[in-house]
Amino acid sequence: MAELLPFPSDDVPLSPDGAALARGVLRLFHDLGYSALLEFPLGIGRRADVAGIRRDGTVAIAEVKSCLADYRTDKKWADYVGFCDLFYFAVPRDFPRDVLPADTGLIIADRFGGQVARPAPASAPLAAARRKALTLRFARTAAYRLSAAHDPGVPLVQDLD
User: Is the pLDDT of residue 10 over 50?
Assistant: First the structure.
């Protein structure tokens, strides 16, 4: 059983630029009809920067890259592709887009919002069991974070599996 953190982990804090991009992606995801969470734990020891689920069950993940060095040093994003229907990189306007894989979606963002510059190609549909597990994990993570926000006595780490 894996431990889930109710809020983004303090062990690898987002840079100020990364936090601003994540905020913009959250706003965009909400505009696109997603309920979204930051630092969503996937259950494989990885956390997606921004994950969202739409009413129809579509799961989208955005990997935030604030600069070229961030992209070049972090290759964990490939692990996230199998946990969503749509995968995006979210980058600032001045990011060199030609280095990003062409078979991923692209979001251009800042602290105020974002726009889809390249739609994410639909991947193979998630297996029903994985979709159910992700949806349950998403709901439980969101509920736990809301509870912790309202009650400071709720422990910061809890086994939710």
Answer: no
Q: Higher model confidence: residue 112 or residue 149? A: 112
- For residues 105 and 90, the answer to whether their CB atoms sit within 8 Å is no
Q: Which of 10, 14, 6 is nearest to 90 (CA)?
A: 14
Amino acid at 107: I
| Two tokens, residue 101 | 């894989």
pLDDT tens digits for range 90-100: 999 999 999 99
pTM tops 0.90, yes or no: no
Q: Which residues contact 155 (CB under 8 A, 6 or more apart)?
A: none
Q: Where are the domains of the chain?
A: 11-148
> Would you say the C-alpha torsion 66, 102, 120, 118 has a positive or negative sign?
positive
Cα–Cα nearest to 61, from 89, 33, 35: 89
Q: Which residues contact 10 (CB under 8 A, 6 or more apart)?
A: none
Amino acid making up residue 155: P
**Six-digit token string for 80:** 């996230």
Are β-strands 86-91 and 105-110 bridged in parallel, bridged antiparallel, or unpaired? parallel
